[in-house]
Amino acid sequence: MKLLIGGYTKKKATGIYELPLYNSKKGLEVELGDAREVIKVGGPTYFVQDGDLIFTINNAGDKGGISAFQLVNGAYQEKDSNLTPGSSPAYIGINRKDKLLYTANYHTAVLAVFSYTDEGKLSLIDSVTHTADTLGPKPEQADGPHPHFFDQTPKKNLVSCDLGNDCVDFYRLQDNHLEHLAKYQNEPGFGTRHIVFSPDGNYFYVVGELSSKVNVVKFSESDWTFTSIATYSTIPDDFTDHNGAAAIKISHDGKFIYVSNRGHDSITVFAVKDDHTLQLRQRVSTFGEFPRDFNWDESEQFVVATNQNSDNATLYKRNAKDGCLTPIQKDIYVPEGTRVLFSE
């Protein structure tokens, strides 16, 4: 098993790094080895994988977009790129069955859908641009809409999270055209960033970057009704320094929610009760600064969080019964990491 980590390339980093995960000889169950660069690319702050293909954000100077790389004879080769003037997207999602990619551009407010081939050829299908309909009161929201997430819903519609407008928007891709279906409005200043869904598809959990909160919402993809159940803070009540909540994950069994905190520098663990309300289970340090992303292996036994500002990552063992994380390896060197992916 191996891990891929990418992020900003403003200081020491130059692309996407690969780290082996192997059985440890130091008394630990597993251990991460040294990071080595496998793809040279600008600002791979988010990327996804389909077999031997990796699709990544690409910050190419005065242009930004996405690029496709394919593993050929043990090395990744660039196969195609779609770059436009201006900033690169913040998020890229994937539909492997239909060979589609979904991007959200925080700076330009553009959501886009691409198709791809087995050889990594990219084609733009459609795009929409968010407008300043419900801008929040925070300084980070004053300059316009900021979509930060665009991916599939349980019923294969599409969903975006807009930090500037404090909202969740739902779309359908019909005849290669994006059609807006519904909107859920978070409280002003929430800073809607990322979203996950319950296994039964009847609830979603949306994290607010600016508010450091998780909002639990019951909803229907049949008639687009929404009911806010409760909202929970990801940080302690007495924490007064700046914090920006970032990534959110839900376990496959739907019993636990995990959120990273940039500022408090921790991962918050919530247990999901039978009525879908949350119960705080743990706040565990990431042993570094500014953890934007974290992820787990397919079995959800091991979790890795990467710290963007301190150039290091932490490996945890996850307890499936209580959801808690136990750090087993710290200070793993990875420069400017923002995206974590256990490789196929």
From TrEMBL:
- Its name, as the record gives it, is Lactonase family protein
Q: Which Pfam families match?
A: Lactonase
Family label? Belongs to the cycloisomerase 2 family.
Gene3D superfamilies on file: YVTN repeat-like/Quinoprotein amine dehydrogenase
Note the InterPro entries from the entry.
Cycloisomerase_2 (IPR050282), Haem_d1_sf (IPR011048), Lactonase_7-beta_prop (IPR019405), WD40/YVTN_repeat-like_dom_sf (IPR015943)
